[in-house]
Amino acid sequence: MALMKLFFSLVSLVVLAGCGTHPAYPGSASSNQTVTEPAFPSVAACLAAMRAAPPGSLEANRSCVRIDVENALSPAFVVQAVEVEVDGARLYAREEPLHQRGELDLVSTFTVGLGQMAPGVHEIRLGASLVPNEIVEPSLHGWRWHLCAKHVVTVAPGAGLSVSAQIYENRAERRPMGQWPVARYLDNGVEAPPLVGPGGVDPGDAGCPRVLIR
What we know:
This protein is mainly beta. The chain is 13% helix and 36% strand. A hairpin with a 2-residue loop joins β8 and β9 (190-191). The radius of gyration is 17 Å and the shape is elongated. The two termini are 29 Å apart.
C-alpha cells in the first residue's frame, strides 16, 4: 500500500512540475513483477480522504483515479502477461508461467491502481501478451498476440474517475485472425474513442509498455 501511495505521489509531482518527458522505469524488459495494492478501497474513500485534507494542502487539490484491467476474451485466448504504465512510470506488471492459465486469465477484472493524482492530463498505456488455448481452439496453434493500447484522460480537480482497460475480441467484424484480440478503454463506463487504429492498438508505438516476453 505504501508503494502505491508513493507511485501516485510521484506521478503527481511529475505533472505538477510540468515535465515534458516520460521518466524511464526500471526493469521494463525484465521478468520482474510489479504488483501493488490500491491505496484506497474505493474511489469514494479516496475522495473522502482528499476532502478531509487541510484546505490549501497538496492532497486537497488532487483527484482520484481508479485503473482496472478487464479480460473480456473468450476461452480461446489465454492472457500471459499484462503491463500498465501511467505517465511513463510502470504501475503494474505480471507474467504467468508460459502457456499456463493464471490470475491474469482466471480473474475477469482486477484493479491495478487506485489513488490520488494531480488534476490534468494523464496518459495510460496497456501492454498485453496472449497465447491460444489450443484445447478450445486448435486452429490457433502457433499464434501469439501482443497488444499495446494508449489512452489520454483529463482529470478535473476534486473529481473521481474510473478507467477500465478492456481486452476483448473483434472476430465478429471479420478481421484477419491476427487482429482478433484488441483493446479499448472505458471512462466511468463509457467507451473512449481510440487514439490510434482499431481499439487504440498500435503495436509499433515505441512508447508503449514492453510486454514481458520470454
